[in-house]
Amino acid sequence: MNMKHAMAACVIGVLSIPTGTAANTFSRIDSKGKFLQLVADRKLVTDWGAIVIHSDGKISGQVGSEKLVGAWNWQGRFWCRNVRVGKRPEQGTDCQEIGISGNQAEFIRDQGRGESGLFHILD
């Protein structure tokens, strides 16, 4: 699998920000209401592409030249998503911790125990 496909498979996953360094500077989002207020319906941009997490539970975006589609819901204190990139199969549900610092959002896979990804939030 080449690097583009590896990033597409991770989607909100493997980036260059290790969990340990970013975790102390981000305020955790711990409710659906706060998530909707701060993140939903805004364009999130990273080095591999861009996504929009829509307030109606859908996800759309681009990973390189491929279309990303998916769905999300809120479970406890985690944002949970299942996405598909291009014609590849769905990735399976991954529940993630989300943190905000200014115009940046950090998504940490596997309920905050996995790798993190950093996005710039555009208005």
Output the structural class.
Answer: alpha+beta
State mean pLDDT (0 to 100 scale). Answer: 86
Biggest sheet, strands in spatial order? Answer: 2-3-4-5-6-7-8-9
**Count of helical regions:** 4
Low-confidence stretches: 1-23
Radius of gyration: 13 Å
User: What characterizes the major β-sheet?
Assistant: 8 strands, antiparallel, barrel
**Broad shape:** globular
The level of helicity is 10-25%
Can you describe this structure?
Helix content is 19%, strand content 46%. It has 4 helices and 9 strands; from the N terminus they run H-H-E-H-E-E-E-E-E-E-E-H-E. The termini are far apart.
Task: Write the topology of this structure.
Blueprint: H1 3-10, H2 19-22, E1 27-29, H3 32-38, E2 43-46, E3 49-53, E4 58-63, E5 66-75, E6 78-85, E7 94-101, E8 104-108, H4 109-112, E9 116-122
Antiparallel strand pairs: 1-7, 2-3, 2-9, 3-4, 4-5, 5-6, 6-7, 7-8, 8-9
